[in-house]
Amino acid sequence: MTLHAAQLQKLIEACLAEDIGTGDITTNSIVPPGSRTKGIIHAKEAGVIAGVPVAEAVFRFLSPNIDFQPKVQDGERVRPGTVIAEIEGDAGVILTGERLALNFLQRMSGIATRTAGLVEKVKGYNTKLVDTRKTTPGLRLLEKYAVRIGGGFNHRFGLYDAVLIKDNHIQVAGGISQAMALARQNISHMTKIEVEVETLTGVTEALEAGADIIMLDNMDQSMMQEAVALVNGRALIEASGGINEDTIVAVAAVGVDIISVGALTHSVKALDLSLDIKQIKVAKM
Question: Can 166 be counted among the known catalytic residues?
């Protein structure tokens, strides 16, 4: 997965507008125009870095003359004190862009770090860890990118690229088979259908209706084992619902193909990073 430049630029522009508004009154009041400085972004805790190109894009959006030197690449593990990037150029630009660049970098690195930890736990099992649509509005591209950097995989990006029939769809349609029949009438033959179920009866109905993927929603381990035996390879099986570091190994051991974890993006702890200014060289008037 790559970050598309046009989408990234549009996002950064909107986020900077939100932060700067009519101007950075603190920096503009304190830092003389034309002053130069050097800043160092470094880690204050261990983790997996994601978002270095995004942080660079923030500063370059503010000034193409900024010298941004990455010292680590996305996907690298860092320890406290590791220098992630060195930035040199206009002091006002660096101070104005600092918080947005760090916000992106910290959140994306937090996502990558937690993803990597969960991927490590299911190493050796034939299952994929995937994200969900429980992302920060406007930041889905970056957050799903961070999941990939951490070694996970992406579920659907939005409502437009896959059919996922959930409990409310089933309620409105009058049943699983009815919902699937209606979906098939209106989608391409190339589009797969996933159905969310909570019971073994639901698993049977989804199978009989020809579901490509069956999501086992909030099932306990015993019921998941029965569901896997019932499906017997006739559809992909996804487990979802409250899965975390304490339960993911047991879920993987059941034999599901996919484990989705919304907490990868909806409640992740940001990685603690900081930007320190070393020295400001005031421009001669």
Answer: yes
